[in-house]
Amino acid sequence: MFRRRTQQTVDDSPVPNNDPKPQGKGRPTPKRRDSEGRRRQPVNAPANRKEAYKQLRERQAGDRVRAREGMLRGEEKYLPARDRGPVRKFARDWVDSRRVVSQYFLPFSLVILLLTWVPFPEQIRGYVYAAVITVGWPVMMVGVLFTSVWVAWKVKKTATEKFPDESMKGIGFYAAMRALQIRKLRFPPPQFLPGGKPVPPKK
After folding, report:
1. Could you tell me which of 63, 66, 80, 65 has the C-alpha nearest to residue 188?
2. CA torsion, points 98, 101, 104, 106, in degrees to nearest 10?
3. Could you tell me if residue 42 is inside a domain?
4. Bridge partners, 198 (sequence order)
5. Could you give the CA distance from residue 28 to residue 86 in angstroms, rounded to a whole number?
6. How many Å apart are CA 130 and CA 77, to the nearest integer?
7. In terms of pTM, does the model score above 0.70?
8. How many distinct structural domains can be found in the chain?
C-alpha cells in the first residue's frame, strides 16, 4: 500500500512547461550522405572525350587571355622570367621616361632603306647616297653606340644605389636593348611617358 501511494504521487506530479532540458528535435536525424550531398556543388562533368577536350581548350584560352591582359598591365606574375624583379622594372621605367637617340635607330634605318629605293635622277642620286652613306649613317651609329653605353652605365649605377641587395647581372644590357626599341613596340608596354608622367589608363 505504501508502495502504490508513492508511485501514484510521483506519476501525478506536474511537469513544468519551462523545463530547460530539451524534449527532442521533433525530426529524424539526417543521414551523413544526405548532408554531404546538399553541401556539394553541381559539377558539369564532360560526357565524353570530345566534350572534355572542348572544356580544356576553353580553359586554356581563358588562361591565355588573362595572362596577356596581365602582361599588358605589367603584373609581375604574368611577366617572363627575364622581365621580373624590381631592378628590371626600374630599368624599364627609367628608359621609358626618357627620349634617347638610340630609340630612333630603327626608324632612321628604315628611312635610309626607302631613300635607296627612290628613283632619283642620276645627278641627284649621287649626292643623296653620299649624304646618307658618308654622313647620316656614321653619325647615327656613333650616336647609338654612345647612347647605349651611357644608358647601360647610368641605369646600373642608379639601380645599384637604389637596390643594394639585388643582383645587377645583365641590367645594363637589358636597359640598352630596351632603349634601342621603338617605343610602341616595347614589351612589357611602357608605364611612363617621356618626362616621367604615368601612362593614362586606356578607356
Report:
1. 80
2. -120
3. no
4. 192
5. 62
6. 51
7. no
8. 1
Question: Can you tell me whether residue 26 is helix, strand or coil?
Answer: coil
Dihedral (CA of 49, 51, 54, 56) sign: negative
Given a contact cutoff of 8 angstroms between Cβ atoms, the answer to whether 76 and 88 are in contact is no
List, for residues 39-67, the tens digit of each pLDDT value.
554 556 667 787 777 777 878 777 777 77
Residue 128 falls within a domain, yes or no? yes
Residue 32 covered by a domain: no
8 Å CB contact between 92 and 188: yes
Q: Which domain holds residue 143?
A: 85-185
| Angstrom distance (rounded) from CA 177 to CA 95 | 10
Residue 188 in contact with residue 88, Cβ under 8 Å? no
Any idea which residue has 596577356 for its cell? 68
Does residue 148 sit in helix, strand or coil?
helix
Q: Considering the domain boundaries, does residue 60 fall inside one?
A: no
Encode pLDDT of 93-127 as tens digits. 999 999 999 999 999 888 888 887 888 887 788 88
Measured CA to CA in angstroms, residue 134 lies from 63, 124, 167 at distances of 52, 15, 42
User: For residue 79, how many C-alpha atoms fall within 13 Å in the half-sphere facing its CB?
Assistant: 17
Distances (CA, A) of 197 to 70, 97, 102, 165: 21, 8, 21, 28
